[in-house]
Amino acid sequence: MNNKNCKNFQISRLAIGIFVLISALAGCSKDSNITTASTTQVIDTSLFNMTSIISINEVTKTMSDGSSGVCYAIKIKSIAPDHAMGPYCPTNTSQSVGVWVDPTLGATAVDATYLNYLETKGWDIVDNNGNVRICSTDADFQKVATQEVGNWTLAQATANGVINRCVAPTPKEQSTMVYIPKFPKKASSPMNNPGGVVPAGLPGLAIALNGIMLFPPEPTDRIMSYQNIAPFDEKGGHVGFGFDYHYHRAWNISNTTTKILGYALDGYPIYTNATEPDGTAVSGLDARQGHTYGTLGYHYHENGNYITGGLTGVYAIP
Ligand SMILES: [Zn+2]
Ligand SMILES: [Zn+2]
Fold first, then answer.
1. Predicted structure pTM score
2. Does the pLDDT of residue 312 top 50, yes or no?
3. What is the pLDDT of residue 191?
4. Long-range contact list for 72-75, CB < 8 A, 24+ apart?
5. N or C: which end of the chain has fewer CB within 10 A?
6. Is omega for the bond preceding 87 within 30 degrees of 0, making it cis?
């Protein structure tokens, strides 16, 4: 953390403290400065690992329901600060590296059994020496992006794209802005699972406490239509078309004390999957995997498959 970040961070913590104090003094009376959202939830920015977060500042944004709301503007590098990124693919069939979510088999280790299964479907992802064909260069990864975004046919991709590859580019540090409402409020029409795509214009569905974006489930069919796979590393992450490292699963990334793994773009926290922080079994989740429990207020639970099933609250228009 450099001094500037440290200062912003301390200011935001101070702001939270003042807000909590004012809220306590005011009880449930109306806060004239905050008319657009609940005041019962406040993100705990002290939980963020600032190593790969460039800055956290407060801004006012237009929200998805047209209102205006106070948000944290979190500038991220998309580089995991607390674990290795990758490896994603085995180099040969004697190894088991990475996990892919096959539409038929579910979450599957990428090993000889799975690669041979793909070969039986007519793929050619392993060469005659047992080496896995890996897409690792920036140029080839850009071809993968072009064919997927352009919705090419397999024939087009065979001629001009990249097929039969285990896709594993190297992530690049960047600067991406993420907005999270400071005072979450539920939307009149929640956004249910967007089905494998990040809603237009948004940087993901949520941000993990280490500053990495959390995505909806990957578009497996689209990727595999070119006889490619893009496995996750052991943390559930891989690299996006902008060379941004992001998670599709939330394996072992939660705060060990709070059990929070991050905040959705509507400001509600996401907890680990099996139990509440107090150890009680999770029950009664809505279509977005959210509910209200105890003193936690509304929150989501990651279920090992989906990080959230959508967004229940309003979110900032970027
Ligand atoms: Zn992805
Ligand atoms: Zn819960």
1. 0.85
2. yes
3. 86
4. 72/12, 72/43, 72/45, 72/179, 72/180, 72/182, 73/177, 73/178, 73/179, 74/48, 74/177, 74/178, 74/179, 74/180, 74/207, 74/211, 75/175, 75/176, 75/177, 75/178
5. N
6. yes
Q: Among the bound ligands, name the one nearest to the CA of residue 291.
A: 2
Q: What's the burial of 201, exposed, middle or buried (CB within 10 Å: 0-12/13-18/19+)?
A: exposed
Q: Which ligand is closest in space to the CA of residue 285?
A: 2
Q: How far is the CA of 272 from the centre of ligand 2 (A)?
A: 9
Q: How far apart are CA 22 and CA 42, in angstroms?
A: 13
- How many whole angstroms from 41 Cα to the centroid of ligand 2? 15
277 alpha carbon, closest ligand: 2
Which ligand has its closest atom nearest to the C-alpha of 300? 2
- CA–centroid distance, 113 to ligand 1, in Å, is 24
CA dist 207 and 296 (Å) reads 19
Tally of residues, the chain: 318
Count CB atoms within 10 A of the CB of residue 71: 24
The answer to whether 261 touches 254, Cβ cutoff 8 Å, is yes
Q: How far apart are the first and last CA of the chain?
A: 26
Compute the radius of gyration of the chain from its Cα atoms: 21
282 CA from centroid of ligand 2 (Å)? 6
Distance 82 CA to ligand 1 centre (A): 19
CA 282 – CA 152 distance, rounded (Å)? 42
pLDDT in tens, 41-94: 568 999 999 999 999 999 999 999 999 999 999 999 999 999 999 999 999 999
CA 264 to CA 261: how far, in whole Å?
10
